Each structure stands twice: as C-alpha cells, then as structure tokens.
Hints:
Shape: globular
Amino acid sequence: MNYFLLFGSFEDGEGSFGELDPKKLKFYHPDYTLHQKRSLVEVDDCYDERGMSDFLKKGKGFLASAKVQKVFFEHGFTGLQFLPVIVKNDTEFTDYAFINPVVHHDLLDPIASKARRFSESIGGYSSVYDPIIDRKKYNATKIEHDCFTLSTYKSDYYVSEPVKLALEAAGVTGVTFMPMEFSS
C-alpha cells in the first residue's frame, strides 16, 4: 500500500494555534490516552490572521475538524485517536479534536534525512531536514494501520492512500499530501 506524508498547509488568513494550560497534548510515545477535561487551544497572539481550516496547526500536531473526524469514523481508519479540545478564536469551538497518533514505526533513514539532536526524553530526533524513509526498514515492516508516525521523529503523520483519497473527496482544507520519499 502507498503511504503519504500529511503536510500542513496554511489557508489564506489562517493563524497558528497554541495550547494553554494544562499542556497535555503530546504524542512522544504511542499510547491511547484519556483526558478528564478538554484542553484549551487558542490562536497565537502574534497572528493577525484568525482564519481556520479543517486541520489547525498546533506546534507539534494537528487539530481536526468535525468533517475530518467524520471521514475517519465513517471509513473506520485506524492508527489515530481524536481527543476533544476547546478552540478559542473570536468565539469558542468544541467540534475540533487533537489528533493523537497511537502507532509508530522505525522507518526513518537518519543519515539521508539529516537528522540531528537525538533526545532520550522524546525518544527521537528533534530536527530532521527532510524525512526520508529507509526502504529496507519499510519493506521489513508489516504496517497494519492507516495512519502512523515515525518512532524516531514524531512531527510527521503518514496516511494510507485510502485516507488521502477520502480526505480529498471530502474537500478538507489545511493539508497537502506528499508521497513517501525513500533512500536508495
């Protein structure tokens, strides 16, 4: 199956969002999580832009609109968990959710990717110039889910071709898809 890098793209007038306390929307280690209270996410003060897309950008990670969540639920796509959040812009929105990846695979080619600064606390690299997949690792890995992140570089989400096609058919905004790039 073909996989694609889910890459955030800003729509005209869209701002970036930051998490307010309590800061708990992290996904350094794959795991389902339960939060007793919704996290509060707000458009960053430095942005005059207040626009919103279906995939809001939050430092590390995305917030998915109800439209995105519906696509995932209707198709039964796996590998992600949606954690409800409150988004504050000019008003409050309660139909967004943080995308928590629960599946990671060790596929990164750190040399070809120019990976730097490996951190034990996050279990991976904090800087990658260009995420390039090691073809040998990829061919040796049985990927059973529609979505995953890399175990040694958590910033990127990868989705299967059926996910890509379903999101495009639904007309979601705020993301583009790039084919997975392999080292030789």
